[in-house]
Amino acid sequence: MTGLAASNxxxxxxxxxxxxxxxxxxxxxxxxxxxAIDRALSILFRDRIVTTGSSRTDAGVHALQNFLHFDTALPxxxxxxxxxxxxxxxxxxxxxVYQVPPDAHARFAALGRSYEYYLYTRKDPFMxxxxxxxxYRIDLDKLEAAAAIVKDYTDFTTFSKRNTxxxxxxxxxxxxxxxxxxxxxxxxxxANRFLRGMVRGLVGTMLRVGRGRLSxxxxxxxxxxxxxxxxxxxxxxQGLFLVQVAYPEGLLDxxxxxxx
Length: 260
Hints:
Elements: E1 8-16, H1 33-45, E2 52-53, E3 62-72, H2 80-87, E4 92-100, E5 112-120, E6 132-133, H3 140-150, E7 173-181, E8 184-191, H4 198-210, H5 216-225, E9 240-246, E10 255-258
Parallel strand pairs: 3-9, 5-6
Antiparallel strand pairs: 1-3, 1-4, 2-3, 4-10, 5-8, 5-9, 7-8
Helix pairs in contact: 1-2, 3-4, 3-5
């Protein structure tokens, strides 16, 4: 009598445009990125596949890189990448497949994540669903100073939306800075972890500094106040991109398929 084949664990790397989705995580009666990926995998394998994601993104938020893992004892088709992308919606692409140890976890193994938030100050129809149209004068020096201040802190209670179930509001910020090219402003931030709504809260509150409505000292007071009602979360989701998820060296060495 032959035993059942051992299950393998795979990490998959994806990119997506979040405009038409109700967020990343599977929700009842809503079209989400993860639901579309689970559906495509289940169709291809002709078996129910349930993925676990590394990072949840809100409705309208995009990802240049995100990861999920799933288990299956079934073999991967030689043209797996081509076939899965033919099934997936146009706004999602599966870029690579990695075989990983059976205990590797897409979310908990991640060492850090980086985000970018885009805003543009001159009307641009090509940026409408990929950035925040902000046609106001901005003091770049103050904006950059505010971004530098962010690195002085580890407690980001102020920038976490309410009704969150996290046990700690501590985050180790590795990068926090603005870059500017022509009429485009981009906030770049990297940390070991992020709280719900944190990047948009940081951007919205820093824009108050850049507009002269909040001094740099008052910005510090907002952070130190640990009160989310003092942060500005009102910037729209379409300007936010999950750019990279970092994993321990060697975890993703076994690349089975990759879209060059």
